Amino acid sequence: MTDARLLTLPAGLLLETGEQLDPVQIAYQTYGTLNAARDNVVWVCHALTANADVLSWWPGLFGAGYAFDPADWFIVCANILGSCYGSTGPASSGNAAVPPLYQQFPLVTIRDMVAAHEALRHELGLTTIHTLMGGSLGGQQALEWAILRPELFAHLVLLATNAHHSPWGIAFNEAQRLAIFADPTYYHNTPTGGQQGLKAARATALLSYRSYQAYGHTQAEPDVDQLDGFRASSYQQHQGDKLVARFNAYSYVALSRTMDTHNVGRGRGSTAAALAGIRARTLVVGISSDVLFPLVEQQFLARHIPGATYAEMDSQFGHDGFLIETAQITQFLERFYVDSLV
Fold first, then answer.
1. Global pTM?
2. Between the CA of residue 175 and those of 15, 18, 93, 108, 197, what are the distances in Å?
3. Annotated binding site for substrate
4. Any catalytic annotation for residue 319?
5. What's the pLDDT score for residue 298?
6. Which residues, including other chains, have CB under 8 Å from residue 85's CB and lie 6 or more apart?
7. What is the predicted pLDDT for the residue at 339?
8. Of 117, 262, 304, 319, which is the active-site residue?
9. Around Cβ 15, how many Cβ atoms within 10 Å?
């Protein structure tokens, strides 16, 4: 990951629950140059285990020669609260005099993440954003922000996300947390606590991120006589180890709980009423094989966001298709922006 810049909020943040998170540090990256009209801003909200370095985890969509080229756009991405990539989270207090909170890290909601984005926006002096976008948990942040500050955004791009986190999604998150809680080292409150539980949690999550077809295509055994050492087993082990090497169990628990809080209708009368307040021209993208955020959820968004455009991605990669199928996403974006000019 490229070194991020840091914004410290000395007064911290008053969280939606009423708790005070103090102090707060926000890690962020910017790419490109703000133009004279200050209207070329693209703000990316990242998903669960990503970071502020969007060029590293969304190649094919962001970077030189792609849809969002820093030569043309001023791109902003901030690491979310609760993460372990520079922003204040369970394993980092943001203050050397205060020890990490680990399990005692307070509940941070999607709206609290948006409050941090708002603080950074003010710091950067941005008064309008051409495109706000995100997938999965990132899409949940983008949606909440577009409702909170409808006048800020000209375009909104939502990929593989929803208006409220489903019982199905919450159940998947709870299963992953149970795996982490079953690791006794999680209760040691150390930087390496809960790693074996995190490995098991990631293996569980992959079953919701990918699809039956994807596993059949990439993990099938060529030997019909195979009895042990299956590719699919090795794949789960490998992916679990990869996450343990780069992430933190306490952040994983915190961020999965944040995702569970997502409901744009909370305190706004209804979900439909909240979505009706969005003023940005909106593109909603669903993925045909997504079992975690199924198409019905994106179709709901498109029906209730005024004037929204709905696009359906044909992919065997499941939920992870929003990170992989960048050629399809680019085609959707090109049509969307052309239609916006009509």
1. 0.96
2. 26, 28, 27, 20, 11
3. 202, 320
4. yes
5. 98
6. 1, 4, 27, 51, 52, 79
7. 81
8. 319
9. 17
List beta partners, residue 76: 30, 43
What domains are defined for the chain? 5-166+263-341 (3.40.50.1820), 169-258 (1.10.1740.110)
Look up residue 157 and give its amino acid. V
- The label of the residue with tokens 């995190």 reads 198
Selected catalytic residue, list 136, 208, 256, 315: 136
CA distance to 24, 26, 257, per residue, from 106 (Å): 13, 16, 10
**What would the 3-class secondary structure string for 9-62 be?**
ECCCEECCCCCEECCEEEEEEEECCCCCCCCCEEEEECCCCCCCCHHHHCCCCE
| Catalytic residue list contains 314 | no
**Residues lower than pLDDT 70 in the chain:** 1-2, 93-97, 341-342
Dig out the tokens for 157 from the structure: 């791009």
- Per the annotation, where are the binding residues? 202, 320
Question: Which of these is catalytic: 46, 290, 304, 315?
Answer: 290
The 10 Å CB-count burial string (b at 16+, else e) for 280-318 is bbbbbbbbbbbbbbbbebbebbbebbeebbbbebebbbb
Q: What type of residue sits at position 176?
A: Q
The pLDDT assigned to 186 comes to 98
Identify whether 290 is a catalytic site residue.
yes
C-alpha triplet 231, 289, 325: angle, nearest 5°:
85
